[in-house]
Amino acid sequence: DRGLVQSAASKEWLALQFAGRSLLSDRDLLLSIVAKQGVTLQLADESLRSDREVVLAAVSQSGMALQFASSELKNDREVVLRAVSQNDRALAYADTRMKSDEELILVLADDFTWSLLYADAKLASDKAFVLAVLQRNGLA
């Protein structure tokens, strides 16, 4: 029963694991649930993990939900920025290309000191880039 699942999931997101497959692929139901409990994205049908609107709702509520998004959306700048805005450590789950994006890391460095920790190793070892990040963050 859709209403029962929605009610139970709003109280305890793990209750969603007992929902039938058809409910876990119900876009409207999952969209309303992930907006309140972003981590429920991990239980969603694979098709919904590739749904940009569903993933944006999930990462807006819990940046760490990025780890359950499709590979394609882990490489979507807006999705990654939204996730990291909610939780700066969500960058750990972004696609490697996002972690190598100098512009993105510099933008993140304005607000998040962790940006270099999750940046691509080559980028994080570039002295000029690290200095630019530290200057933007006010630490240099």
Set down the secondary structure blueprint:
Layout: H1 2-11, H2 21-24, H3 27-34, H4 46-49, H5 52-61, H6 77-86, H7 96-99, H8 102-109, H9 115-118, H10 121-124, H11 127-137
Q: Characteristics of this structure?
A:
140 residues, 55% helix, mainly alpha, elongated, 0% strand
Q: What can you see in these coordinates?
A:
The protein has 140 residues and is mostly helical. The chain contains 11 helices and no strands. Helix 3 packs parallel to helix 5 (52-61), helix 5 packs parallel to helix 6 and helix 8 runs parallel beside helix 11 (127-137). The radius of gyration is 17 Å and the shape is elongated.
What kind of sheet is the major sheet?
none
Structure summary, number of beta strands:
0
Our measurement of the CA-to-CA distance between the termini, rounded to an integer number of angstroms, reads: 57 Å
Mean pLDDT: 85
Order of helices and strands: HHHHHHHHHHH
Roughly how many Å is the radius of gyration? 17 Å
The helix tally amounts to 11
Which of globular, elongated, flat, extended, rod-shaped describes the shape? elongated
Poorly predicted segments: none
Q: Which strand-content bin applies to the residues?
A: under 5%
Query: What structural class results from the helix and strand content?
Result: mainly alpha
Percent of residues in helices comes to 55-70%
